[in-house]
Write a structure and sequence with these properties.
seven-stranded mixed β-sheet, alpha/beta, Aspartate Aminotransferase, domain 1, pyridoxal phosphate, binds 4'-deoxy-4'-aminopyridoxal-5'-phosphate, PyrdxlP-dep_Trfase_major, Aminotransferase, class I and II, globular
């Protein structure tokens, strides 16, 4: 990526070089345009608040305060609350086993973080030097690139298709052509990716796992959406296939509530102590009170009852969006250059679409907002040159009626621009 222009420091303040690399999120800037009352938004990245288990949190909050208020409100261990780390380890073991793999996660390898976003920040601090080569999918999660860039890496996009990263492109990107420097890691989102909604196939996971091990290329596997599958669970995580070669990031944001700001990292023993030291320096520990509440809510298998309700809701929302798209863009698949095209995500919160030839999602957005609908253009999600025709549509927060209305408005905006 190109270096951003240096920030002009206000008098007397000499800003760090890394500050010049921090930019307002392009998406947040775009979203400002869309925050007009009455706009139907497919732009947000928020889970549906209908899924938050409010009564369970209320009961857990009271119980945590009643049972051990002194510990719940005191400073606590940087690694996280022991029972929560054990539940995380056990859940991952069970999930891998149901996909036919043995993944013995030691709770001692689990670090509770302040959202998985902090996991990304810690990974960057521990693994990235200025100039380090790091690999990302194309496109990728913008928040990860924002967490990595202050460490001044060279971010290299690896071509990716509907099944995930392209193996040949990966082989070529893993080592820098001129210097021979090996990439520090590949950051991957195998399940219901943000922004594309796509899922890495079993064959690609197997190939990537083997190839990364052969190349000695560590993998950073980010999996905040993996539990939100619609018809069948996704294939087993990459980390379960080679735990010593991967760092796994998980989150409670999409299965319980993002406001608690809790996630976790599972790291090999060779890296864990450094992540822990970085965590200590960052915030000592994630809120102990929140960790106890989540552990209280999760005990007795609550997620096994709760997560299926989120899956059912999001699946019906996805179906409504697919139905509306098919209705308003009947030519889609036969005429990809004349019409909008889109994928069918098997889980998660996002659908990825592509505009007709010669149209740009950034240019379309103000016209769509005028018609009453907002989306996020896809280009900012690419670490290199983005495809200007792409856009991300979130289907989880609007109602079914709003989804139909919003897709109709999108179709009207596209037709108008095509005619212009
Ligand atoms: N990774 C990805 C791919 C995400 O989409 C998000 C949230 N939008 C995060 C990480 C961070 O989530 P959290 O910090 O809430 O766990």
């Amino acid at each position: 990526m190109n270096n951003p222009p240096l920030i002009t420091a206000p008098s007397g303040w000499q800003l760090a070089r890394r500050a010049a690399r921090m930019n307002p999120s392009v998406i947040r800037e775009i979203l400002k345009v869309t925050e007009r009352p009455g706009i139907i938004s497919f732009a947000g990245g928020l889970p549906s608040s209908k899924t938050f288990p409010v009564a369970e949190f209320e009961a857990a909050c009271a119980k945590v305060l009643r049972d051990d208020p002194a510990a719940a409100l005191q400073y606590a261990a940087s690694e996280g609350f022991g029972p929560l780390r054990e539940m995380v380890a056990e859940n991952l073991r069970v999930q891998a086993a149901s996909a036919g793999l043995t993944w013995q996660v030691d709770p001692a390898q689990v670090l509770i973080t302040t959202g998985s976003q902090q996991g990304l920040d810690l990974v960057a601090k521990v693994l990235v030097d200025a100039g380090s080569r790091i690999l990302v999918e194309s496109p990728t999660y913008l928040g990860a690139v924002m967490a990595f860039t202050p460490m001044e890496p060279e971010v290299v996009s690896v071509a990716s298709d509907d099944d995930g990263v392209d193996m040949e492109a990966l082989r070529q990107a893993a080592v820098a052509a001129g210097t021979g420097e090996a990439a520090r890691f590949l950051y991957v989102l195998p399940n219901f990716q943000n922004p594309t909604g796509r899922t890495m196939s079993e064959a690609r996971r197997a190939a990537l796992s083997t190839e990364a091990a052969r190349l000695g290329l560590p993998l950073i596997e980010d999996n905040p959406y993996g539990d939100l599958w619609f018809d069948a669970p996704p294939p087993a995580p990459l980390t379960a296939r080679n735990p010593d070669g991967c760092i796994y990031l998980g989150s409670f944001s999409k299965v319980l509530a993002p406001g608690l700001r809790l996630g976790f990292v599972v790291a090999p023993k060779a890296v864990y102590p450094k992540l822990l030291q970085a965590k200590q320096a960052a915030d000592l520990h994630s809120p102990g009170f929140n960790q106890r509440m989540i552990a209280e809510v999760m005990k007795d298998g609550f997620l096994d009852r709760h997560v299926p309700t989120i899956r059912a809701l999001y699946k019906s929302q996805r179906d409504a969006m697919l139905e509306a798209l098919a209705q308003h863009f009947p030519a889609s698949n036969s005429q990809p250059d004349q019409s909008l095209t889109w994928n069918t995500p098997a889980g998660g919160m996002f659908l990825w679409a592509r505009l007709p030839k010669d149209m740009s999602a950034v240019d379309l957005l103000p016209f769509a907002v005028d018609k009453g609908v907002a989306f996020v253009p896809g280009a900012p999600f690419y670490a290199d040159h983005g495809d200007p025709r792409t856009l991300r549509l979130s289907f989880v927060t609007p109602s079914v009626a709003e989804i139909h209305q919003g897709v109709a408005a999108l179709a009207a905006a596209i037709k108008e621009r095509q005619a212009a």
